[in-house]
Amino acid sequence: MFFASDNGSAASPEVMNALMRANTGYARGYGADEIMARVTARLREIFEAPEAIVHLVATGTAANSIALATLARQPWNGIFCHHHAHIAEDECGAPEFYAHGSKLILVEGAHGKMTPETLTTTLAATQQGGVHGVQRGPLSITNVTEAGTVYTPAEVAALTACAKGYGLTSHLDGARFANALAATGASPAEMTWKAGIDAVSFGGTKNGCLGVEAVILFDPSLDWEVQLRRKRGGHLFSKNRFLAAQMEGYLEDDLWLTRAAHANAMGARLAEGLARYNDVTQWHPVQANMMFPEWNAGRHERLTAAGATYYHFPAPAGREAARLVASWSTQPEDVDAFLSAL
Around Cβ 56, how many Cβ atoms within 10 Å? Predict the structure, then answer.
């Protein structure tokens, strides 16, 4: 009954097997290995983008920060994101650090999602002080959001259109990108460059990899800059083949989508079970594999005693709140045991 985070799941056997296959003989370092060439070709095929830049790093924080620093270009350019975005609340100032001081400009919106109206209002209010003010920079969208909700391609396109109206680029934080695709049925291209996205942090760690994320940019002219920023930021692995091997195993036979669909299905099973309890409410619509239920006080104690692991959130007096996340390895019996203990 482990629902603390999809980060807590084991690595997928297919990914571990790919690592073992890579762990023989010799290979060129720093991304010049044959596995990396295959991964690049496969991701370009998946995204229907034959000239896309693909570089691997070990963490989502690095992927987001390197991509955003590349798009921000200058430290006086702000980065627009939701006020509960991961880059705003959970990355210890890394995006600002990598972008040499770019300010995060926070945008409001219910259930973890910006709207064209809230984004336009924030864009219009920025850069009003001439040389005294922060200048407009890239937009960053998180999908799946930190509230567990999902943007559709149309919603992404509406936001990027606002940014493009000011000549700005757009980034997608896709730590749970596969879960967003599984939830919407969209293709990777429809969710990204066809909807106006310029760069993607393509997540693997939360969905069965040991630790690998891809920085994907759709403008090939930025390749050298991304390479320099990755090296300068300490994320150019000499033994890159072990990052590439994880990603290759993850992408093979569309494992990444299968795993995400399973996690979403377990999330739906959990949400449906919670809905049967009269005192349980959800803070946000449940659209993928993450949810935020609230219930009467006393349930935390029973669940913990039964062996359940999850995050407790602040709640009003007499109530308790939680964050529950299903993963690729969550089983129906895990969900049912949690609901029984509840």
Answer: 27
Beta-bridge partners for 237: none
Instruction: Quote the DSSP letter at residue 253.
Output: G
Q: What is the pLDDT of residues 34-68, one digit of tens each?
A: 999 999 999 999 999 999 999 999 999 999 999 99
Q: Please report, in angstroms and rounded to a whole number, the separation of the first and last CA atoms in the chain.
A: 11
Q: What is the mean pLDDT of the chain?
A: 97
The Cα 1–Cα 3 span in angstroms is 6
The CA-atom distances, in angstroms, between 250 and each of 101, 110, 142, 162, 205 are 34, 33, 21, 34, 10
Rounded CA-CA distance 233/136 in Å is 24
The H-assigned helical ranges of the chain are 13-22, 34-46, 60-72, 86-89, 94-98, 116-125, 153-164, 177-184, 188-191, 223-232, 241-251, 255-274, 299-305, 332-341
Instruction: Report the relative pairing of strands 311-313 and 319-325 from DSSP bridges.
Output: antiparallel
- What does pTM read for this prediction? 0.96
- Adjacent-strand bridge partners of 216: 54, 200
Q: Which string of DSSP letters, residue by residue, matches 300-320?
A: HHHHHHTT-B-EEE---TTEE
The answer, yes or no, to whether residue 274 has pLDDT greater than 90, is yes
Instruction: Give SS3 for 250.
Output: helix
On the CB side of 286, CA atoms within 13 Å amount to 24
State pLDDT tens for residues 227-251.
999 999 999 999 999 999 999 999 9
pLDDT single digits (tens) 83-97: 999 999 999 999 999
